[in-house]
From TrEMBL:
Residues 138-163 have a biased composition (Low complexity). Residues 29-178 are annotated as: Disordered. Residues 164-176 have a biased composition (Pro residues). It comes from the Bacteria. This is X-Pro dipeptidyl-peptidase (S15 family). Pfam families: Peptidase_S15. Residues 1-32 form the signal peptide. GO terms for molecular function: carboxylic ester hydrolase activity; dipeptidyl-peptidase activity. Residues 592-796 form the Xaa-Pro dipeptidyl-peptidase C-terminal domain. InterPro entries: AB_hydrolase_fold, FrsA_esterase, Xaa-Pro-like_dom, Xaa-Pro_dipept_C. Belongs to the AB hydrolase superfamily. Residues 43-60 have a biased composition (Polar residues).
Length: 809
């Protein structure tokens, strides 16, 4: 790592952790109001849904159970690429499809006009005449500086199947056939690196430097060849005449052999001692995933010859970036047999899971299905290190369909060549996708551009990152601290504007319009309607990062497009489940049912009602439509004397709730932005319920106020009077203008799922500061003259809709 890069990385980490310390230090006291002087654009608000939204057509749903292609019909294999014997340079054949991906400024699938393409910078790496062509530049805002230590491509194995692409949906024109372009790379790395510098291999040749190999080798080198970060998105769709991305038909890969895997093959000692140690390492959360590229998977020494084994590859994406991929065959798969495959994406800052036997996710065990459970149920499992993280090259672009989405498209084409992978057609493997958070977002980014995906289960994913980080122009400062700190601690190679945006927003409450536009350009929210794969959206009721509203928006877009869609609200996500104990079994059960139905084609698999949610008592409810059928809302108005509240940083604010420390280390960290009952608040108590009432959806508040000061937001939350917990741990920003004038404002709150039994009640609070939106530049006073709340109610389908949580095995 270059000195300048090192200093910049540590400096960014120091700032991130410094802001994080402010969050922790302020936990025992109140926090201040949100941003003053924010320059972000208005974010759309979430309002209570109308009954008409629940009657979307499902006519466009995919038909499950597509026939598989017999193994003998495959036309492609894996053959080595042999360089000339007289040439000492390591050369590689890289087969790339035409770079027809659009930037957000280019024409999209819905026929919007494309921006005029511009000429890209010349590629540093030498190429042969066949590949010596100029490429259009990426959309404005994607440019990044070259890495300090670019790498040379090793000798790969070329997988070049000659197969047709899957016919597109009837509403989309066919994509042009992919072409193969061969480029030859010399030993000298792109950018003029000197011979002998880091080659970018996942482990250094010198095993004595094992620690350095595990933590840094191949991770600081960006690998700009054959195209720079600023030119990763090439020819626009307008120029190609296509309305969708080209499906890759030639992908360059190389199988990766861990440098210490040979220890397991030592007679007697390997099977009896080394392999058990390697197996134990792989069940240690995160530790096994980090060390894996050095030690490899545990070898099954008793398996008959030809039995499929877990192994690693590096798959070359459309721009030359190599993605580190782990392939783990289904449990019990025999030689010559095939199985459907699940792409299981990691969360932000995490490497691809290599926990062969773990039944649940090692980081979020109560939220996400594990590799072991998927393999046990007859699925091959593929994980990977996302672009810009861990052993993969390139620069992170926050799951942009144009970059990370195309990485996955190349991995899918590569999987179609493996003998263990079941196919629906040539170059079309039978696949589903799972994963949480960043691993949920990549599913939406992938399926929007590649319709070979058969089913999705995105857990705690998002719809729009601008609304997540700057909701209603408030600054989500807690998560704006935690997320960059994760990237800094894991030495990710994020887009160069990510840290400045986060730090500037957290410290000063400001965001440049160009940065907001950049985040929007990387988003997949405008392409959700392009997804055709049946999608199970799983979102956490206590998730303070990607709230229920994010899944709600995704669901409405999918249903509107005619895509088979199901929604589950469970107690979990980026937050601490304080109201009840989530054992994760319901989520895992529904995940398997969804995959069995739409990947395996088992029409008898019970996927449940279209909408299922859990209340604060751990009871599950369901409705056959989404959103659920609406009941009569509860409307209450506070007409007492007006109340004046001072707005002073760190004065009796909301949260974090100290109970988060009772839920474990990870939940405590994720629960830092949680809300809690506040002393400095305007209260409106809802009368006791007279009958069983389900409050499900987005409440709405109307507030008449006046005041003076620099604060631009106050916050609304709802407290359970029985437990003292804030519903969903959510405090929602309410924009205000404090210039002495009396105003009335109406805003929706974050969606909640709560059951009121006879005699139970809740209290609405207007507070001036919260842990999630902490800042120290909001001052003044506000007078709340009148306050009204409208609580949405839902009617569960049938008298027997509620049921106890699944028993713990």
């Amino acid at each position: 790592m270059g000195a300048a890069s090192f200093v910049g990385r540590i400096g960014g980490l120091a700032v991130a952790l410094g802001v994080g310390a402010a969050v922790v230090a302020g936990a025992g006291s109140a926090y201040a109001d949100d941003d003053g002087g924010s320059e972000t654009k208005d974010a759309p608000t979430s309002s209570a849904t109308s009954p008409g939204e629940s009657t979307a057509s499902m006519s466009g749903a995919r038909t499950p159970g597509k026939p598989q292609v017999a193994r003998g019909e495959r036309t492609a294999g894996t053959t080595p690429s042999v360089p000339s014997g007289d040439d000492e340079d390591a050369s590689a054949d890289v087969s790339n499809e035409p770079d027809d991906a659009p930037g957000r400024g280019s024409a999209n699938k819905r026929g919007e006009p494309a921006d005029e393409a511009t000429e890209a910078d010349e590629v540093d790496a030498p190429v042969d005449a066949a590949a010596d062509a100029e490429e259009p530049a990426a959309p404005e805002g994607l440019q990044a500086p070259a890495a300090d230590e670019p790498v040379a491509a090793p000798v790969p194995t070329e997988v070049a199947p000659s197969v047709p692409q899957k016919p597109p949906a009837p509403t989309e024109p066919s994509a042009p056939p992919a072409q193969t372009v061969t480029a030859q790379f010399a030993d000298e790395p792109a950018g003029g690196a000197e011979p002998g510098e880091d080659s970018g291999d996942p482990a250094l040749p010198a095993l004595a430097a094992l620690f350095s190999s595990v933590l840094s080798a191949g991770r600081e080198a960006t690998n700009e060849s054959p195209t720079a970060v600023g030119a990763q998105v090439a020819t626009s769709l307008a120029e190609s005449g296509s309305a969708q991305y080209p499906i890759p038909t030639g992908v360059t890969v190389e199988e990766w052999t861990p440098p210490l895997e040979w220890l397991q093959r030592i007679p007697v000692l390997g099977p009896l001692l080394v392999t058990p140690i390697v197996g134990f390492i792989h069940v240690l959360p995160l530790v096994g995933d980090i060390i894996h590229p050095v030690v490899g998977f545990p070898i099954d020494h008793r398996a008959p010859a030809g039995t499929p084994q877990a192994r690693n590859y590096r798959v070359t994406s459309f721009d030359g970036t190599r993605i580190f991929v782990n392939f783990m065959p289904a449990k019990g798969l025999q030689a010559g047999e095939t199985a459907p495959t699940i792409l299981n994406g990691p969360g932000l800052g995490l490497p691809g899971s290599t926990a062969l036997e773990l039944p649940v996710d090692s980081f979020l065990p109560d939220d996400v299905i594990g590799v072991g459970t998927l393999r046990q149920n007859g699925y091959n499992v593929v994980t990977w290190d996302p672009r810009g993280e861990w052993r993969s090259e390139g620069v992170m672009h926050l799951n942009s369909p144009d970059l990370e989405g195309r990485d996955m498209s190349h991995i899918i084409s590569f999987l179609a060549t493996l003998p263990e992978v079941a196919l629906d057609a040539e170059n079309d493997p039978r696949i589903g996708m799972t994963g949480a958070s960043y691993g949920g977002g990549i599913q939406l980014a992938t399926a929007a551009i590649d319709h070979r995906v058969d089913a999705l289960v995105p857990t705690i994913a998002w719809n729009n990152l601008v609304d997540v980080l700057f909701p209603r122009d408030a600054v989500n400062s807690s998560w704006g601290t935690i997320l960059p700190a994760v990237l800094a601690l894991t030495f990710a190679r994020e887009h160069p504007r990510i840290f400045p945006v986060a730090i500037q927003g957290v410290l000063f409450g400001l965001a440049q319009q160009s940065d907001i536009d950049l985040v929007n350009s990387l988003s997949f929210g405008d392409q959700i309607k392009d997804i055709t794969a049946p999608t199970l959206l799983i979102q956490g009721t206590v998730d303070t990062l990607f709230t229920l509203d994010q899944a709600h928006r995704n669901a409405l877009d999918l249903i509107d497009a005619g895509t088979t869609t199901k929604v589950i609200w469970y107690c979990g996500g980026h937050g601490a489940c304080l109201s009840d104990v989530n054992d994760g079994e319901f989520v895992i059960e529904r995940t398997l049912s969804w995959l069995d139905r739409y990947v395996k084609g088992n029409e008898n698999a019970d996927t449940g009602a279209q909408f299922e949610w859990v209340d604060q008592n751990g009871l599950w409810h369901g409705d056959d439509s989404y959103p659920a059928a609406s009941g009569t809302p509860i409307v209450v108005t506070r007409e007492e004397d007006s109340r004046v509240m001072p707005i002073i940083p760190a004065l009796f604010g909301s949260g974090p709730n100290p109970l988060i420390i009772t839920r474990g280390l990870i939940a405590a960290l994720l629960g830092l932005p949680s809300a809690a009952a506040a002393y400095n608040a305007v209260n409106l108590q809802v009368p006791d319920a007279t009958e069983l009432t389900h409050v499900v959806g987005a409440p709405q508040v109307t507030m008449t106020y006046s005041g003076e000061g620099t604060a631009e937001h106050v916050y609304a939350q709802i407290v359970d009077d029985e437990t003292g917990l804030v519903l969903g741990n959510h405090a929602t920003p309410i924009p205000v203008t404090l210039d002495g004038t009396t105003r009335t404002a109406t805003f929706s709150l974050e969606p909640v799922a709560h059951t009121l039994r006879p005699g139970q009640s809740v209290t609405v609070q207007i507070v001036t500061s919260t842990a999630k939106f902490i800042n120290y530049y909001s001052w003044g006073a506000i007078t709340v003259e009148e306050l009204t709340v409208e609580l949405p109610t839902r009617i569960p389908a049938g008298a027997g809709a509620s049921r106890e949580p699944l028993a713990v095995a």
